[in-house]
Amino acid sequence: MKNFSIAKSRRLRSTPYTSRIEKQGVTAYTIYNHMLLPAAFGSIEDSYKHLKEHVQVWDVAAERQVEISGKDSAELVQLMTCRDLSKSKIGRCYYCPIIDENGNLVNDPVILKLDENKWWISIADSDVIFFAKGLASGHKFDVKIVEPVVDIMAIQGPKSFALMEKVFGKKITELKFFGFDYFDFEGTKHLIARSGWSKQGGYEVYVQNTQSGQKLYDHLFEVGKEFKVGPGCPNLIERIESALLSYGNDFDNNDNPFECGFDQYVSLDSDINFLGKEKLKEVKLKGPQKKLMGVRINIKEISLTGSKDIYDENNNIIGELRSACYSPHFQKVIGIAMIQKSHWEVSQSFKIQVNGNTINGNVCDLPFI
Amino acid sequence: MKNFSIAKSRRLRSTPYTSRIEKQGVTAYTIYNHMLLPAAFGSIEDSYKHLKEHVQVWDVAAERQVEISGKDSAELVQLMTCRDLSKSKIGRCYYCPIIDENGNLVNDPVILKLDENKWWISIADSDVIFFAKGLASGHKFDVKIVEPVVDIMAIQGPKSFALMEKVFGKKITELKFFGFDYFDFEGTKHLIARSGWSKQGGYEVYVQNTQSGQKLYDHLFEVGKEFKVGPGCPNLIERIESALLSYGNDFDNNDNPFECGFDQYVSLDSDINFLGKEKLKEVKLKGPQKKLMGVRINIKEISLTGSKDIYDENNNIIGELRSACYSPHFQKVIGIAMIQKSHWEVSQSFKIQVNGNTINGNVCDLPFI
Predict the structure, then answer these.
(1) What structural domains does chain A harbor?
(2) Which of A61, A62, A107 is nearest to A80 (CA)?
(3) Could you say which residues bind substrate here (chains A, B) (predicted)?
């Protein structure tokens, strides 16, 4: 595939770590929440192998926060997500589909409950802040909505636990998955969650004190040599093999949570009030007509820049491939596709055009096994 | 400046013209409304000269539409903008700052009135659709809000009038600035406005019939040879020289319309209802404390990737430079900066660090003269 440069400007915001990752050899960016998100440091496959074996520090400042605080903040946050947050606890992260009045997805953030009246919505790539502002204004909610200065750095990979213990002490290894707490680095408290956009384990540091965060970034590389620490970023291969879905890639505002396999996060039976609840009841009653599934394709290489139609043996379109990569683990191309109900049978075979050739593939359940 | 690749994926949407512009030599992209927007075809200065002399066809599909229709559509659209639309006419475009409840800018679209109950908000780079959906839901407005399939191609430059006349006939030259009408191309009607993101004159074709739009794209190049038609895109130099402001670059959700010189679009004296009206009355009463101004800097080259602080002779920060380029017309670097009230005097001198050197510059009014 031909390479195109990214034209930088203030509108594509840099992060506090940009100058560091550029010295460390970042080669490609994507844009996420109007911000630079590193997408490659040379070979994605080499990075994938390193991530699965060692530890990486990622500049994921593009995972922006929408901070909602004030008397009506819990009501507004609940209105935006179909997941029941009535029993949510301070110090915990919650994966929460954000839904519009049509029952379709606006975003799929992790929501952090900082206090009874203070929340961070750690967003995927859409302007949830304006959705929240519109709702708050229309409902005359007593809330304050801002994008705070928070620039996340992620520490991911099997050796992330040892590296973080070396910096923050034993206590950080006791943090449960999707729990967060405050940890001291050279006199500055940092909010750190056990989370991250890989399945290799790790942490996310929600950096509010930029200067201390930059020092921490450098420190992790200084003391991490014994763990073979390296720079990295969310890895296309790892995230597809792990079936971590991506808003905008695998689903968007034309899809509903049942079509994306988010059933466990849709609390239709509770008496909580959220947008699209009636629409989602209808969808559930009728059953979704399409859903995200895995696919395996009998080739060794693919470079997907958009959706690609999938056909049955009679050349009828039965779905569309939305993300794909060569998987070293499965030794073929795998991907995530939206498949029509008529063709949900596992091992359903299909055809797809890649570089002018007709290739065969098979549908499978997610996650891949 | 070092070049970085853009990592393409479905999330960074391609347009119906992407394969064409890649054959025509696009070299750099930016991302705008989650979509590829071409940023350069080789030298930006060569493109600038060509645009000012001949005619270019631009893939600006990234200027997405938010379509608002239904009984309460006029009320919702008015609620979102501080510009009085009560006397707006079908067939006209209106430049309209979109304002939140704090009186700050959400976007600065052109709004097209298609019908008494149907509007297109032709947006700059933020998800206005979710702001509209939030407001509509909170206010229980009877409206339908969608992003329709509309992929704008712009025809810009002094010879755009002759080229478009050759394709669409005499009638298109009678279209007034910011007027729109429907014109036939090989049996398909296209909405065409006399508008565009340059000051060199031209049109924007709001393509709904993708196939016909692609044919039109090719046709413009076939019949445009006599006008030296070329591919192009919004040009950094031309837009700064013309003082065309860019949401995200020159201003954002931390700025209000008075700080951006949008006074003529703020209808505080009318009895219309819009968000942030009381806040903006306060701002007007007190007077803005910062505003966008032009700057001239005594160097021949700059490459801005973010804001850059501007200092007075005592090294106090007096503002920040937000966009800049070398201007062939002024034969020095010019730019757009947010300047604190204490230093609004025209020809105010300042200092700025560029590539480690301290450079002098002067403040001036916008537009540049």
Answers:
(1) 18-63+150-240 (3.30.1360.120), 289-369 (2.40.30.110)
(2) A107
(3) 204
